[in-house]
Amino acid sequence: MKKTEQKKKKRSSRKKVIYLVGESTGETISKIARASLAQFSKEHIEVKKFFLVKNKTLISSIIKQASEDDALVAFSMIEPGLRDFLIREAEHRGIKTIDVIGDFIVQLSIFLKEKPLAIPGRQYILDEDYYRRIEAINFSVKHDDGKMPHGLKLADLILVGLSRTDKTPLSTYLANQGWKVANVPIHPDIDPPEELFNVDTRKVFGLIISVESLVKLREARLKQLGLTPYAKYADPVKISEEIEWCKEFFKQHPRWRVVDISNKAIEEAAASIVSAYQTGKKPA
User: Would you say the pTM of this structure is higher than 0.70?
Assistant: First the structure.
């Protein structure tokens, strides 16, 4: 068998490699790639990230490595010189590329009849929105897991739920969007803070989850702590009882809106909460 045929066979049997290349923090391209890859099986996909790429020498090195990996290169380069250089290098080595943001910017420029500013990381400029997000993140950290209940009245959103129902991840995600979020844990044997019942009910969301999903989450938590997965904390019978109690508790507060987070991604659950809050309707 010829060397070229052996090389092709070796490449086809291994994982498909995707390079994400950006001249800034990579947050935008990472989100786009994550959302896109969610439509495919990730079992045979490997993603390699290269961010803060600001010179041609580094670009040459990355493209050379991409050639060896037979990779697809998705890039976000706003500076024209770097973008054009990357494209030329990729074409020279026969590498396929996706200009994740550039094509959109070109079409916007044509539509708006305005030349783009070409400033990398412009979305992170220290404007009013930036400071609002920082304030929201600080608020959510201070009011995580029932801390500082006297501050609940200042929250935009309040998440209420049993242990391991994604209260903290949801709070963090929403805070990064500029929402001041507090979360309050509840349990059959623990009284919630009195302040919870003296706030605007429109901003209170109860989180509910299936027994199977909560068992998995709690078993994973016990594993992280190096404890046996058979502890009461992850016992399906106990969890079932907790969830039934939780449902009854929420029924006692009919103006709270309940979100079922079973098998939902954080992004999906967060979008459901924000939409319900803004429209006044029940969460999807």
Answer: no
Report residue 20 as tokens: 């994400």
Beta bridge partners of 21: 50, 75
What CA–CA distance (Å, rounded) separates 195 from 192? 8
Query: Which tokens sit at 91?
Result: 């074409």
Statement: residue 8 has pLDDT above 50: no
Tell me the CA distances in angstroms from 281 to 202, 232, 258, one per residue in order. 10, 37, 11
User: Among residues 195, 208, 209, which one has the least CA distance to residue 155?
Assistant: 195
Residues 6+ apart with CB under 8 A from 127: none
Structure tokens at 175: 């805070």
- Contact criterion met (CB below 8 Å) for 15 and 41: no
Give the mean model confidence (pLDDT) for residues 250-265.
95
Taking 70 as the threshold, does the pLDDT of residue 117 lie above it?
Answer: no
Confidence tier at 111 by pLDDT (50, 70, 90): confident
Walk me through the domains of the chain, giving residue ranges and CATH numbers: 14-124 (3.40.50.20), 128-279 (3.40.50)
